[in-house]
Amino acid sequence: MNPSDHSISEQGAFNLFSEESVKNPFPLFAQMRAMGSVIPIPNPMGGTGQAWMILRMEEAMQVLKDHARFTVDPTTIDGNNDIRAGLADKADPSAPPTFFTGKSMLFVDEPDHRRLRVLVSKAFTPKFMEGLRPRVQEIADELLDRVQARGEMDIVKDYAYPLPINVISEMLGVPQADREQIHVWSGALARGLGFGKQEPEVAEHLRAFGMYTAKLVADKRQHPADDLISQLIAIEEEGDRLNEEELISMISLLIFAGHETTSNLIATGTLMLLDHPEQLERLTKDLSLVPSAVEELLRFNGPATASGPRFATEDTELAGQRIKKGDMVIPLLKSANRDEHQFSQPEELDITRTMNRHLAFGYGIHMCLGAPLARVEADVAFTTLLRRMPNLRLSIPRDNVAWHFALSSQGLASLPVTF
Ligand code: HEM
């Protein structure tokens, strides 16, 4: 890499983290990919350790599957790089844990990861999810019934947000009245938890979300019901498979991960289709294409810009770069999904594309637990929307569409349409 490349990589990283390229980061990713599969960037947490951006699919998969060489938990190496420690410092130490400050499956390695994931994995199998399809359909229809006569709606507020939060809340047993407040917290967390961003109110939201989850668990302990939270409480009470901190972290993870990302897939996916009228028309005419369109929308502009960071457990080499023990490594999923080495015409949206894989749900042991649920929800959401509202049109100038930037899950602030 020559010195001018280095400045592009610094500039690129800066732009990416500073919301500048939020509307369309893909030209920047292409520029960075041209420089290499693995490139050094300034440490987004401002620490002294080196950070690396992984731009291509092969190397991203290597990092995500090799959990001996790359850990999700830097405290197992040393504390210096810990982005969560920084946040936890600001939080009230007496506050209840959350998925971010406590011990959730996303942030632990084997064998704890497997122990935690196995406790809920049965509730997220594709077969179990198919059983939920009629209820997801009912919710989608109820939401569209409310706006059908109006001839206009905000896709985000009226459809993409309420659909997944109602589904996951029913699975978990989260009361209806609490869902709006949860949306406020998790929206703030999704936007506040990016690398290099530690807005002061994030610690406050984390604390409030943790307190809420702890209270929910206490209530359910008194009044168990036929839901996932009650099942997890029963497991915790059995003894040695799940402790209280893990229980609360797990529930806050399922609530948070279970709706924010899927809402973004539905809203951004709709916008991507509106941006490609010929693809939208084709899909509207043949709704059997929805499952393949969903995969393509995930590849083309899926919600997660990057997976969580990984940290090298030893000095190692990746695509010719020397990664030092403790360095932070960030697989850029959206760039890997546009990798010219993997896809023909990767910058084109093609809802009939056949592909071996994309990385929108991550890869390896931490690959998204909720992928089968997200797929059923997106399938029902797009099929129902296009069947009932085949003349969907954006009702504001395209340039006025406002994005929310978040590395974990990027989405739209609103998407007004007519139909
Ligand atoms: C389109 C929607 C979704 C996208 C794009 C998405 C994306 C992801 C990604 C990229 C990861 C891996 C993160 C990493 O390796 O650092 C992940 C993990 C996870 N996701 Fe999702 N997700 C979605 C929906 C859901 C839903 C509906 C749930 C339901 C509860 C969920 C629960 C989880 C959990 C629990 C993990 C952690 C898994 C582990 O560490 O073993 N996600 N998701």
Would you write up a description of this structure?
The protein starts with a helix and ends with a strand. Helix 1 runs antiparallel to helix 2. The chain is 51% helix and 8% strand. By secondary structure, the protein is α+β, with helices and mostly antiparallel strands. The chain has a five-stranded mixed sheet, with helices on both faces. 46% of the residues are buried. It binds protoporphyrin IX containing FE (HEM). Protoporphyrin IX containing FE binds next to helix 12, helix 13 and helix 17.
Main sheet record: 5 strands, mixed
Name of the CATH architecture = Orthogonal Bundle
* Structural class label: alpha+beta
The total count of helices amounts to 17
- CATH topology name, in short, is Cytochrome p450
Low-pLDDT sequence parts: 81-91
- Average pLDDT score: 87
Distance between the termini: 51 Å
- What is the H/E string? HHEEHEHHHEHHHHHHHHHEEEEHHEEEE
The named CATH superfamily: Cytochrome P450
CA-atom Rg in angstroms: 21 Å
Give the structure's gist in a few sentences.
With 419 residues, this protein is α+β, with helices and mostly antiparallel strands. The protein has helices at 3-17, 26-35, 57-65, 83-90, 112-121, 126-148, 155-160, 162-172, 179-192, 200-222, 228-238, 244-257, 260-275, 277-285, 290-301, 333-336, 371-388; strands at residues 38-41, 51-54, 70-71, 152-154, 310-312, 316-318, 321-323, 328-331, 393-394, 403-404, 411-412, 416-418.
Task: Please outline the helices and strands.
Blueprint: H1 3-17, H2 26-35, E1 38-41, E2 51-54, H3 57-65, E3 70-71, H4 83-90, H5 112-121, H6 126-148, E4 152-154, H7 155-160, H8 162-172, H9 179-192, H10 200-222, H11 228-238, H12 244-257, H13 260-275, H14 277-285, H15 290-301, E5 310-312, E6 316-318, E7 321-323, E8 328-331, H16 333-336, H17 371-388, E9 393-394, E10 403-404, E11 411-412, E12 416-418
Parallel strand pairs: 2-8
Antiparallel strand pairs: 1-2, 3-5, 4-12, 5-8, 6-7, 9-12, 10-11
The structure holds protoporphyrin IX containing FE (HEM).
Residues 105-106, 117, 168, 253-254, 257-258, 261-262, 265, 302-304, 307-308, 360-362, 366, 368-370, 373-374 line the site of protoporphyrin IX containing FE (HEM).
